[in-house]
DNA sequence: AAATTAGATATACAATATGTATAGTCAATT
DNA sequence: AATTGACTATACATATTGTATATCTAATTT
């Protein structure tokens, strides 16, 4: 009755391929639908050509699948350019660049909007996504500290950080994006962010 | 077999009382829960001491109940003070006051947050709530036009309108409200709104 | 007083979803 | 040849929205 076990490159490769197909199918469905309402594991499984049970084997739950979809988008989402932006000498230009990067990210895949909707019905998934956003808050805090004069009050700094964090969030992008191209949204957010840090610099 | 029909003040009063009890129970549950996830008509009905079918008789659907809850909150929500604010001679002070009114409104009842979550799973409810928000956009547009110089470009005006509309939205309030008292949120939003219209005035 | 009516109830049913449980299939590996 | 990993087939439990039908009760009309 002992399990000998084995690791098969052929099998794990096939499984990974299957996994990717499911993620891709889920992302496509999220992208095409205008709302998360119609999204179900059954539909995803059929679109991916597997059984619903396979989805559970791979992702554990609906939540697991959604997280995998988000991480898949994030991986190929251009967020790696943040390092270069943060290395820029002028903190205000760095801020502009970071805003631009996140605007592009939010605009990249319409599935991101559906995933944010999913936060409403699944608190644990919401927490998972919020954790991933905390990295952005750290970036914003670093930039704010670089801009702020030493005389600036702590409360004012925290206010600026949270304001910029909110301005660069997906909900903000989504609200500004209706009937407006991404680069214009980006410009609006950049201006608002600069206005938020300006009082700290003097 | 003819319906004679009759209108009874006693009956309709009793029905209205029942209706109010259901709305109140729903609002209370939405207020107490941290997420819309656990909200169900069965729970509401039991909390109100009626049958689930009674809820359907009164509101037609889950969506109908949610709309009734929102309208109930809006009715006693201090939004009537907007008229006085809009009548203020200085448009910037009027803007400050309008921001203050909406901050108070969003902060008034935690159920509002849950209702906004419900927009994710019910597109038609989302549309109903968005329609109610369009009134706010009109206010913002009026104030922006009052501030803007005649030389200000149309696109810049529209940008300012949408930015302020987003800044005064519930999602924005919710993002800034974590660990911060309402009046500080209000101040942050006021400052950001003033910064958004400032470029138009010169 | 008797018939009717509005509102609520009781009960059942249909349709979806998520999630769990068990046994079986098939090819890769030992 | 036996075992194992991934997937499948089928069934089941649970929760939720929404609909259908018959019944109950108190208010109202004739």
From TrEMBL, chains A, B:
Keywords: DNA-binding, Transcription, Transcription regulation. InterPro entries: Homeodomain-like_sf (IPR009057), HTH-type_TetR-like_transc_reg (IPR050109), HTH_TetR (IPR001647). It holds the Pfam family TetR_N. Residues 16-77 form the HTH tetR-type domain. The keyword Nucleus does not apply. Coiled coil: none annotated. SUPFAM superfamilies: Homeodomain-like. It comes from the Bacteria. One of its GO terms (molecular function) is transcription cis-regulatory region binding. Residues 40-59 bind DNA. The keyword Cell inner membrane does not apply. This is Transcriptional regulator. It comes from Bradyrhizobium lablabi.
């Amino acid at each position: 009755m002992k399990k000998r076990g084995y690791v098969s490159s052929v099998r794990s490769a096939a499984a990974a391929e299957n996994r990717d197909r499911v993620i891709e199918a889920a992302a496509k469905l999220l992208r095409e639908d205008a709302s998360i309402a119609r999204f179900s594991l059954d539909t995803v499984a059929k679109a991916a050509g597997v059984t619903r049970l396979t989805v559970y084997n791979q992702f554990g739950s609906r939540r697991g699948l959604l997280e995998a979809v988000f991480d898949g988008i994030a991986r190929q989402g251009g967020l790696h350019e943040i390092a270069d932006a943060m290395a820029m000498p002028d903190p205000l230009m760095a801020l502009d660049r970071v805003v631009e990067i996140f605007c592009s990210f939010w605009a990249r895949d319409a599935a991101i909007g559906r995933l944010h909707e999913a936060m409403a019905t699944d608190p644990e998934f919401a927490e998972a996504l919020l954790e991933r956003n905390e990295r952005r808050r750290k970036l914003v805090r670093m930039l704010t500290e670089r801009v702020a004069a030493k005389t600036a009050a702590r409360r004012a700094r925290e206010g600026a950080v949270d304001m910029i964090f909110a301005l660069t969030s997906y909900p903000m992008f989504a609200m500004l994006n209706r009937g407006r191209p991404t680069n214009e949204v980006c410009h609006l957010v950049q201006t608002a962010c600069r206005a938020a840090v300006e009082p700290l610099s003097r």
